[in-house]
Every structure is written in structure tokens, then in C-alpha cells.
């Protein structure tokens, strides 16, 4: 669920718009809804399962979310078909709440790539109190055996406000009020200051670090020390006899050495 919401938000940032053509609605969207097959998680939240003939379009606008940018509302619903009369095709009942939907112009046939009729689109306008409103509807129906159940037919409807509606139109005001009241983005939450954790207690005090040039314990600092003077204190205690013997031999006169050899 969270991944679908994140994907939907990302698609909206990229300029996503759900506005299917009649061919796409009849060959792809409507058959999948009838068969119960899954649709893309980005568009499924904008396809509402509702009885649009139970109330007027202004009430539907207040209850169901419109598509982004276009502002249309798509409904997967069933329309009741009236008994067929002799010499006339069957027609669907269009009563909706206190008014009714009325056909506007001829029905448009939808054909596939081979020219075969696969469905049709009806354009209707809502009428209330004897006057036409600015609420319009496109009804998509497909020629499928699964679409007809008894005396009803499963259809896909697109309800929207007429582009020619005046700014002060009742339908436009209903649409804007519903979107602002129900589907406004949530207010941002106030930031909460994070509490700092206390520093952990120190078990043992660390040993003080000795500076790199500091003298060792028991050794006097010296500005300049030659290599010989540096090594002499270390060599003297190690072999005192050898050093003194060598020094004594070095200082013995040659005559004394000769006399000792004669003896």
C-alpha cells in the first residue's frame, strides 16, 4: 500500500494524467473492470465503484476523488435497461436523484483496427427542475456477454463539468467546493524538537598523553646531542671491563710492552 502511494505521488510529480480515449476505455479499462482483473495501481484509485444513478452529480462530486489535473470523475457502474419495444432498440433508464440524464446528440460507435464495432459512447447532460445543468457525462459500453447481467449493463462513465460553463455556474461551484472540502491536502505537522541523549559516564579517566618532544622520566632535556654521546651511557654499564682494558692498552708505553715480552 505504501509503495503504491509513493508511486502515485511520483507519477503526479511527473505530470501524470488519466484521460483514456474511447478505444482505450472500451478495449482495455472497461473489460478489465468487468473481469475483475487488476489495473495499474496509479489509476485504480480514480476508478470508483458506485451507483451514479442513485443521486445527482453534485453529490457524487462531494464523495469521490477527481483525476489529477483534468478533474474528471470515472465510475464503474450498472445502468438498468428498459424492455425492448417492437421496432425499437432497448434504451437505458437515466433517472438520477431529483433529476435525470438526457442524451445529447447521436451515439458514437467505437471500432477496432479491423473496422469491427466493439462498443459505443453516449453523451448525456444532467437536467434538474426542468433546466439543463453544466454537468456532462460520457458513457462507455462494450459489446461483451459479460457486460450484460440480467436487465442491467456494466458501463464506464466519465462525469465532468462542461468546459463552456460560466465561472459562477452552479456545477462549477459544486465541483470546486467538493474538491476543496474533501480532497484538500493534509496540513503539515508541527516539527517536534528531538531530545538529546545524556553522555554516557566515563568509567576510568584516560591516561594523559605524553607530548612527542617531551623528555622521558629521569632524563634531562638536551638541545643537541651527538650520536656518540647518545650511545655512550648505554654502552658504559654493559661492558665496563672491555672498555677499560682497551683504554689501558692504548695508554701503555711501547717500552713497557717490550720489557714484558722479554720477561
Automatic annotation (TrEMBL):
Transmembrane segments: none annotated. It comes from the Eukaryota. GO terms for biological process: regulation of DNA-templated transcription. The keyword Transcription applies. Residues 85-100 have a biased composition (Low complexity). Residues 12-162 form the NAC domain. Keywords: DNA-binding, Nucleus, Transcription, Transcription regulation. GO terms for molecular function: DNA binding. PROSITE patterns: NAC. Residues 82-112, 189-229 are annotated as: Disordered. It holds the Pfam family NAM. This is NAC domain-containing protein. The lineage of its organism: Eukaryota, Viridiplantae, Streptophyta, Embryophyta, Tracheophyta.
Amino acid at each position: 500500500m505504501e509503495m503504491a502511494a509513493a508511486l502515485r505521488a511520483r507519477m503526479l510529480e511527473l505530470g501524470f494524467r488519466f484521460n483514456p480515449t474511447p478505444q482505450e476505455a472500451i478495449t482495455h479499462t472497461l473489460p478489465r473492470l468487468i473481469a475483475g482483473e487488476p489495473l495499474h495501481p496509479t489509476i485504480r484509485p480514480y476508478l470508483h465503484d458506485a451507483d451514479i444513478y442513485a443521486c445527482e452529480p453534485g453529490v457524487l462530486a462531494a464523495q469521490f476523488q477527481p483525476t489529477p489535473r483534468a478533474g474528471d470523475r470515472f465510475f464503474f457502474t450498472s445502468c438498468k435497461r428498459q424492455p425492448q419495444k417492437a421496432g425499437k432498440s432497448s434504451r437505458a433508464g437515466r433517472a438520477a436523484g431529483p433529476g435525470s440524464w438526457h442524451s445529447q446528440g447521436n451515439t458514437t460507435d467505437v471500432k477496432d483496427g479491423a473496422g469491427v464495432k466493439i462498443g459505443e459512447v453516449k453523451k448525456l447532460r444532467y437536467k434538474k427542475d426542468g433546466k439543463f445543468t453544466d454537468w456532462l457525462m460520457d458513457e462507455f459500453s462494450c459489446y461483451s456477454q459479460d457486460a450484460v447481467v440480467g436487465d442491467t449493463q456494466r458501463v464506464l462513465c466519465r462525469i465532468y463539468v462542461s468546459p463552456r460553463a460560466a465561472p459562477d455556474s452552479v456545477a462549477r461551484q459544486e465541483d470546486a467546493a467538493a474538491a476543496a472540502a474533501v480532497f484538500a491536502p493534509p496540513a503539515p505537522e508541527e516539527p517536534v524538537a528531538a531530545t538529546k541523549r545524556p553522555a554516557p559516564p566515563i568509567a576510568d579517566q584516560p591516561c594523559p598523553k605524553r607530548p612527542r618532544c617531551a623528555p622521558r622520566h629521569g632524563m634531562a632535556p638536551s638541545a643537541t646531542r651527538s650520536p656518540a654521546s647518545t650511545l655512550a651511557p648505554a654502552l658504559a654499564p654493559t661492558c665496563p671491563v672491555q672498555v677499560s682494558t682497551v683504554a689501558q692498552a692504548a695508554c701503555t708505553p711501547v717500552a713497557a710492552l717490550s720489557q714484558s715480552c722479554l720477561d
